[in-house]
Amino acid sequence: MHWIPVLLEKLAQAPAIWITVLQAQGSVPRGAGTVMAVFADDFLGTIGGGHLEFEAIAEARRRLLSDNDPTCLPLEKRFALGPSLGQCCGGALVLKFERVTKQDAARLQALLQDQAAQRFQPLALFGGGHVGKALVQTLAALPFHVRWIDSRDEIFPSNVPAHVVCEHSNPVQAAVPELAPHSRVLIMSFSHAEDLDVVAACLLRQRQHHDLAFIGLIGSATKWATFKRRLAERGFSEAECQQVTCPIGVPGITGKEPEVIAIAVAAQLLQV
């Protein structure tokens, strides 16, 4: 998704070879459907790197130089990831090489957007503070559609990644019933009172629909113990509270800097 604007801009100036992984067998770096665009002086995307990609880019550029060669029709070529490529993965890929120009831009954009719609997962991020801002940047190249929610409208930066939608909600928990099904939810507002209200709204939605994939709350074990007591007072059971992950982030990463927390949380989300 993040290189669509660059692709459209470059295609307006020069043709490219569009490489698609048609088949993937055994141990391979990327799966079927993976794409990249190769220009005479640049390339976008990756089919896995290494000598495989080196050879694929070389093949693409040979075809770019052969404008009037009838063999420049779409080509399918098999690459075995063995000694001939200096790789020992043991798998094999079939790659398709197709010449594309600015006339193909709309088709390629639609293809990439359709792939993103299938792969990208909905994520609701409550809180526009330091960790929230770091998370948005960390998630920029990862397969998530981010709905960034805060009760303070002025908190959002002017520039956010393309797949991030900023939303002002006051009270902030009012946004929970409208979240996309199977959303991952991260809660890190400026206020513990707001955090508690959002957690309660998420648990109520789970009670009614059970359609949130992950509920994560930033904070310490002490904070979560306090929250559990208050949630019990609101009628939520121990089993319901166990649906909340607090603290958040993969174990073993202990830094408290926003960027470090963001990496730990992003890794945890990819495990869900």
Question: Top keywords for this entry?
Answer:
272 residues, alpha/beta, Rossmann fold, 2 domains, five-stranded antiparallel sheet
Report helical residue fraction: 25-40%
What's the order of the H and E elements? HEEEHEEHEHEEEHEHHEH
Tell me the strand percentage band: 15-25%
pLDDT < 50 stretches? none
Give the CATH topology of the largest domain: Rossmann fold
How far apart the termini lie comes to: 21 Å
Overall pLDDT level = 90
How would a textbook summarize the main sheet? Answer: 6 strands, parallel
Fourth CATH level, the homologous superfamily of the largest domain: NAD(P)-binding Rossmann-like Domain
The total count of strands amounts to 11
The tally of domains stands at: 2
| Known CATH architecture of the largest domain | 3-Layer(aba) Sandwich
Specify the CATH class of the largest domain. Alpha Beta
Care to describe what's here?
This protein has 272 residues and is of the alpha/beta class. It has 2 domains: 4-117, no CATH class; 120-271, NAD(P)-binding Rossmann-like Domain (Rossmann fold), CATH 3.40.50. Helix content is 35%, strand content 22%. It contains 8 helices and 11 strands. It has helices at residues 4-11, 50-64, 105-119, 130-138, 192-208, 221-233, 238-241, 258-271; strands at residues 16-25, 35-38, 43-45, 75-80, 92-100, 121-126, 144-150, 164-168, 184-187, 214-217, 244-245. The strands form 2 sheets. The protein has a 6-stranded parallel beta sheet. Strands 3-2-1-5-4 form a 5-stranded antiparallel beta sheet. Helix 5 links the parallel strand 9 and strand 10. Helix 1 (4-11) runs antiparallel to helix 3 and helix 4 (130-138) packs across helix 8.
